[in-house]
Amino acid sequence: MFSQNLSRASAPSSRVDYSAPFPIVEAFGLRFSNLTFREAVDHILAMAATPAPQFAVTPNVDHIVQMRRDGEMREVYRAADLVLCDGMPVKWALSLLGRPLKDKISGSDLFPAACAAAAQAGARPFLLGAGPGVADECARRLAARHPRLQVAGTFAPPQNFDGDAEAVRRIVDLVRAARPDVLFVALGTPRQEKFIHRHLAELGVPMSLGVGAAFDFLAGRIRRAPRWMRHAGLEWLWRVGREPRRLYRRYLIDDMAFFGIVWNEWRRLRSQSRAGMRS
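RE: above sequence
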């Protein structure tokens, strides 16, 4: 069984104590899980071996900006069991605020790493989302890389399916019947996170995670930014260059609000610190 195989598959990271709460860094109204990338992968697999449905989110600059005006999105991100920092700009901002994190952990990186760990542990992932044929191609490539991996299923939902209650019901039933240990959802933010949160109990999957464009990257449909750009915090610039009409306003206009959010957070934390000193 998957849960029986986990300890053996996770032996290199056996120092991680899954029964103890992991370190938390609070900022921007979120409780960031302060983990290394390897620890995050191990925690996802460990949580996938438990019976209670849980889910993870990977907030980046755009997500934090969107949360200001989207109440449901705020609720979803605050309810998440794992909150992993996706993006060097957020990590840098947290360091400036005196609340450093160990690592930048994106859904696009977590997806292939968690699948590799799942193959070792005997966990079965389900791939939901992206365009027609993309999840299937992902499953084929994952099987070629990890012959022991058992993909529980794949499905590319129709556009705007989340506005059709019957379509949602069919998808939930499909995933539930497959009985996966981990559900990866590639619908884009905030659709993927809202779908997971709304149907968490019905889906009955131990661990769920929204992974954005990860299926497209792994399937070779979209070329990802070079590694040096990702490490330099410039992946957003790469994406704007490749999809300017779709992403120009989001990244170069809307997301500039992040500077104001960081400033307000700094003032809040300073006020909080002064109040603590007076008491």
